[in-house]
Design a protein that fits this description.
Shape: extended
Order of helices and strands: HHHH
Number of domains: 1
Structural class: mainly alpha
Strand content: under 5%
Largest sheet: none
Radius of gyration: 17 Å
């Protein structure tokens, strides 16, 4: 499998996050929360991979993109709250009867 597609997805997701931050649509979590999250991620990584240079540069891109999307939504709410506006919850479509 080519690594180009996952690499492009990770780069694209990161760059759109930077753009949102520069535009004021994203606000990062507090430093202590980020540090705790990094510690948790490192502990999980150490459970999955052996200690080697090869494993320290691998990225679970699907998990990373999922976590990044979740964080981007939380950061958008922090940014809106800091600006004095709290966006409404996303609309959920009613279930379609079977």
């Amino acid at each position: 499998m080519s690594t180009t597609l996952p690499r492009c997805a990770v780069i694209g997701a990161g760059s759109s996050g930077i753009t949102a931050s520069l535009a004021g649509r994203y606000r990062p979590p507090a430093r202590a929360a980020m540090a705790a999250d990094i510690r948790e991620d490192l502990a999980e990584m150490r459970k999955r991979h052996i200690a080697s240079k090869r494993h320290t540069i691998q990225v679970d891109f699907e998990g990373y993109l999922r976590d990044l999307d979740r964080e981007r939504k939380a950061g958008a709410q922090r940014a809106a709250a800091a600006a004095g506006f709290v966006p409404p919850l996303p609309h959920r479509r009613p279930a379609v009867p079977a």
